[in-house]
Amino acid sequence: MLFLIFWETYPDKLQEVFKLAKEGKLSTPPGVKTIEEYGTPEGLYVEIVETESEEALYKYVITLLPYHRNVEVKLAFPAKKILALF
What is the pTM of this model? Predict the structure, then answer.
């Protein structure tokens, strides 16, 4: 299953998050695969992940909560699949 994760990073934690990411300490756990991630200079990010384990996704998100003032996780479908439903 695909999920969109919307991360809103605390501005004062951005540099710390960048450092941890560069050191490879923010990698996804086994069972969660990052497809793509996009970000803005002010700390807004959207990450597309694939997983069959809601537990693994939950573990990934909850460990990063201290760095974010808002996190939203949404189930996602490719547009072609949505159109095929109708």
Answer: 0.87
E strand or H helix that includes residue 63: helix 54-64
C-beta of residue 50 within 8 angstroms of C-beta of residue 1: yes
Q: Which residues pair with 44 in a beta bridge?
A: 8
User: What pLDDT, on the 0 to 100 scale, is given for residue 81?
Assistant: 87
Report CA-CA distances (Å) from 39 to 13, 34, 63, 65, 80. 15, 14, 19, 17, 25
Q: Strand ranges (DSSP E) for 10-86?
A: 32-39, 44-51, 68-76
**Percent of the chain whose predicted confidence (pLDDT) is above 70:** 100
| Residues 81, 5: Cα–Cα separation, whole Å | 20
